[in-house]
Amino acid sequence: MTDLTLYTFAMSHYSEKIRWVLDAEGLPYREVILTPAFHMLPARRMGGRGQTTLPILQAGGEHIQDSTRILEWLAANRAPLKTLPADAAARAEAMAVEERFDAIGKDVARFLYWTGFDHPGQIKDLWTRHATPLQRAVIQLGYPLIKLGFQRKLRINARDVARAQQRIEAELDWLDARLATGHRWLAGDAFSVADITAAALLAPIARPSQHPVYGEESFAATLPPVARTWQARPALQWVRQLYAEQRGAVRFKT
Fold first, then answer.
1. What is the pLDDT of residues 156-169, one digit of tens each?
2. How far apart are CA 151 and CA 92, in angstroms?
3. Using CA atoms, how far apart are residues 59 and 202, in angstroms rounded to an integer?
4. Across-strand partners of 6?
5. Whole-prediction pTM
6. Domains contained in the chain, CATH given
């Protein structure tokens, strides 16, 4: 029995970040996977911040929205966390890395949906895997309008996608350079939320086989061509290695 419930999207890299933290900490939780578009009202109601973003962590009667705010809540209410360094300097470094990779989360989504929407069958499949029959029917019928809503909300257009690609490449450059110095971990001398955040936020591009969405060949077919040229970069090899060594098979705890 657990008092923690995590509301997620199956394909969300922010959701994967918190799912990984909870799993790494051995904190039991129940996962509720919501369906895109249908998530908006419950997320706005639970979050109480006028936002529709996921993940949301429910702890008793409290709801914490946003992955960084969830980390802060866990640090305050489930301490000590082995993925959050006890040393003040290492913790500050870990949270700085967490912040920099969080900052490209929307860029990754924008970049991937740009070509993903050229494959409507795969997108509709991803959106409806955990949907009710009614939700599935509504998404199938209303897909053009739902797609338009996503494009507007995420600013999926040529100019913003080009900027997103530049920002992603800048973080890949940073990570490549960091790894070139011989550092295995991104903050301090142990595995931490810095590594989890970087790996989870880049996982949709790196495609670790352990993830039940990102590792699928049907998902790979939707990747932008330039993302395929990145696969040999040290940064993305590091993501796949980290999944293999630290994450293992990802299981949704519904």
1. 999 999 999 999 99
2. 35
3. 28
4. 31, 57
5. 0.96
6. 4-77 (3.40.30.10), 88-247 (1.20.1050)
